[in-house]
Write a structure and sequence with these properties.
746 residues, mainly alpha, 45 helices
């Protein structure tokens, strides 16, 4: 019983620890033991525990008798002990017992009243706190400040202002509490007004206001106060650094971090987290290495959480395992009461594809289950191709959010299971724009373009606003199928509903119009762009190239270089194709040589094929053959196929054609175009016997050339025609009418 009393009195020393947050009072009461001064052992005996029991069971008379005995023993300090007991009871959650103790106390002072008031406020029983506040025989600044904090915690801003103005006396704590309360409730303007009116400011005042601005990403105001503040401490520096990182200005945050006069664990952790959450994973890990080498500070749980996400982002599984080992060595895994540490490890191992470790940690911490951890695990299974386990987990978890459903839908689309993805989607209880976009994108990637358009129509019927990414996906599909009219309709919808400058959306429009033959519309969008990235330039260069506008393509390339955007292999593919189509041999050679010599871009297979085509169109077949023989790699079938394609039907290049065909057929014996091209060359050069033999060989091999096709869109339906098809006379007349109308309009 004595041990119970000791633990009861020491309980409040540990109630704010993370461990307390996950335990109820009774468990903590019996589990907590803190050494107390010897004088306490002489005073306590059994009375506090018996007193608490009597108060809980409303045995008021017996409780009063125990209190009298304690009073006789303590003498003059009895009111101090009564107030101390009252405070401990209320802080431990026994607010009703504390009030009964207050009611039977023979004597009370202002401290006792404030202790009871504080108990009500901290228990968020504000109605009772107000009643008690009104009944207090006297109030001091502590009383008023307690009520101020209570109103702020409940977000009752109007009453907070009224109470603050009614306070007969304010001290620095009152002013700071008002500033802090307004910031917590999002009233930065009001907080700054109070801050400016403060007669005296201390370091807490400045830090509170700076942190308020920083947490709301108002870094201009935060930095102005920071520069004005004279006596900064480590909290000040850490707040401003965290604010810059939270706002995405990592360079500014790191610059301040490097010059701050003093750093603690929180400072280092804030900077590491700033790097990690902004995608600078390697920088976060290297900063941690620098910390461990230079400073003897032990990282905390928050540090390891940031590092786990950094390891996942950097893709360093070995380092991630070492990090996990450090967590175990420091016993942090046993104190993970809110589950955030285990969640970061599940994310890390799922990203690495190490699903055994991820599943083990997830299962071990089921008591701290979070839907985010579940989603990490589901995505990990999907990325490793284990959709069965992903589905099993999805079916078993008690809580599923929109991310869970969307991940599973995307996973089934990724392996071509369209029907399963659709089944999940239509059974999804709450579909948001992301889920609809995933559904549309999945159908587009499965080349089900009509179905994708129908789903978009249903999305609009359901009243869900499309995202920019939704339109990007649809515009890409329209460009791939050269569906100009639907593409224009989507463009109009974008302008009508939500259009504002979006780089990716503009790039999609350029590509769509260029692929649909409207190069002027593509160039109009390109010219009016506020900002252009590499994709913008490449799309326009490739568009001009595909339309045979070689000079425009080369001119755009030059403008791109002048603007400071460095060309890539895709850029050079566009301009080299343009030169090839226009027969600009010298310009093509100039650009090809500049690739490696000037821009350090290594030519790829497609660039060499472009040069072969360029030489062939310029009538330089022999030079093309010599170019192939000097390639820095062994030519493959696509190279020999390109060479064969430029040989033509003349007798002059027949020898080269036969050599190219021979090499090509050795690499790809069933290559139909090679057989047909060689047959045509034999026929053109009166080598009918060779042609006959080759066609017989094609028959024995079963080689058949895939027939060419054309398509036309009529009344929302696409009609495809293969070479050799026979159409009805009425259909031919209708199609010719459409074609002539189009020609007439243009």
């Amino acid at each position: 019983m004595l041990l119970f009393c000791l633990r009861l009195l020491s309980f409040t020393l540990t109630r704010n620890s993370p461990k307390f947050q996950s335990c109820n009072f009774n468990a903590s009461l019996y589990a907590t033991h803190v050494a107390l001064p010897k004088s306490y052992y002489l005073k306590l005996s059994f009375d506090p525990s018996r007193l608490l029991q009597c108060l809980s069971q409303q045995r008021v008379l017996e409780a009063r008798q125990l209190l009298d005995k304690l009073s006789d023993r303590d003498g003059k300090r009895r009111i101090v002990h009564w107030t101390s007991l009252l405070t401990k009871y209320s802080k431990a959650g026994f607010i009703d017992e504390a009030r009964r103790l207050f009611d039977i106390m023979p004597e009370r002072n202002i401290v006792t009243f404030n202790a009871m008031l504080s108990g009500y406020v901290q228990s968020r029983r504000l109605f009772e706190a107000f009643q008690f506040f009104e009944e207090m025989p006297e109030r001091n600044v502590v009383s008023w400040t307690s009520m101020l904090c209570g109103l702020a915690d409940l977000g009752r801003i109007d009453e907070l202002w009224s109470l603050f103005h009614a306070m007969p006396e304010k001290n620095i704590v009152s002013w700071n509490a008002m500033v802090s309360g307004l910031i917590r409730n999002g009233d930065l303007k009001g907080a700054r007004l109070v801050f400016d009116q403060m007669p005296i400011k201390n370091v807490v005042s400045w830090n509170t206001m700076i942190a308020g601005y920083a947490e709301n990403c108002k870094m201009e105001e935060a930095k102005a106060l920071f520069d004005e503040m004279k006596d900064r401490n480590v909290i000040t520096w850490t707040s401003i650094i965290s604010g810059y990182c939270r706002s995405g200005y990592v360079d500014e945050g790191y610059s301040l971090f490097q010059i701050m006069p003093e750093r603690n664990v929180i400072s280092w952790t804030a900077m590491i987290g700033g790097f990690a959450w902004n995608g600078f994973y390697e920088e976060a890990l290297l900063l941690f290495v620098k910390w461990k080498r230079s400073f003897d500070l032990k990282p905390n749980e928050e540090t390891f959480i940031s590092l786990a996400y950094a390891c996942a982002g950097a893709g360093w599984p070995c380092l991630g395992k070492q990090l996990h080992a450090q967590i175990i060595i420091n016993n942090l895994d046993k104190n993970d009461y809110d589950g955030r540490l285990s969640k970061s490890l599940v994310h890390m191992y799922s990203t690495f594809g190490n699903m055994n470790f991820a599943s083990f940690i997830f299962t071990k911490n089921l008591n701290n289950f979070t839907v985010q951890s579940c989603n990490y695990l589901i995505n990990g299974y999907i990325q490793t191709g284990d959709l069965e386990r992903a589905q099993n987990l999805f079916d078993k978890v008690p809580i599923r959010d929109k991310v869970s459903w969307t991940s599973m839908i995307s996973g089934y689309f990724s392996v071509g299971e369209v029907s399963k993805a659709c089944h999940l989607f239509w059974n999804m209880p709450d579909k948001d724009a992301v889920a609809w976009t995933t559904m549309i994108s999945g159908h587009v990637h499965s080349e089900l373009f009509i179905e994708a358009t129908n789903i978009f129509s249903e999305m609009r019927v359901q009243g869900v606003l499309a995202l920019n990414s939704t339109y990007c996906t649809l515009l890409g599909a329209m460009g791939a199928m050269a569906y100009l009219d639907p593409g224009r309709q989507f463009h109009c919808l974008v302008i009508k509903t939500q259009y504002k400058f979006d780089l990716i959306l503009d790039n999609s429009l350029i590509s769509m119009y260029a692929k649909c033959g409207e190069i002027n519309a593509a160039y109009s969008i390109f010219s009016n762009m506020v900002f252009r990235d590499l994709v913008s330039w490449n799309s326009m260069i490739m568009g001009f190239s595909n339309h045979g506008l070689a000079e425009k393509s080369v001119e755009t390339f030059k403008t791109m270089v002048v603007s400071g955007t460095l060309p890539t292999s895709v850029t050079f593919l566009g301009v080299l194709s343009a030169c090839s189509h226009a027969g600009l041999l010298s310009r093509g050679w100039e650009l090809f040589n500049a690739m490696n010599n000037v821009y350090a871009v290594q030519p790829g297979l497609e660039h060499y094929i472009c040069m072969i085509d360029l030489l062939g169109r310029a009538g330089k077949v022999k030079e093309a053959y010599q170019f192939v023989l000097k390639l820095p790699f062994e030519p493959e079938n696509t190279v020999w196929g390109a060479l064969l394609g430029i040989c033509g039907l003349g007798e002059t290049n027949a020898k080269i054609a036969r050599q190219a065909a021979k090499q090509l057929l050795e690499l790809d014996p069933l290559n139909a175009p090679a057989h047909v091209t060689l047959c045509n060359i034999y026929a053109a050069n009166d080598q009918h016997e060779e042609e006959k033999m080759l066609r017989k060989e094609m028959g024995l091999k079963g080689v058949r050339k895939v027939p060419g096709c054309s398509w036309i869109q009529m009344k929302g339906k696409v009609h495809v025609f293969f070479s050799g098809d026979k159409a009805q006379e009425s259909e031919v007349d209708d199609m010719l009418l459409i074609l002539f109308n189009i020609v007439g309009e243009s």
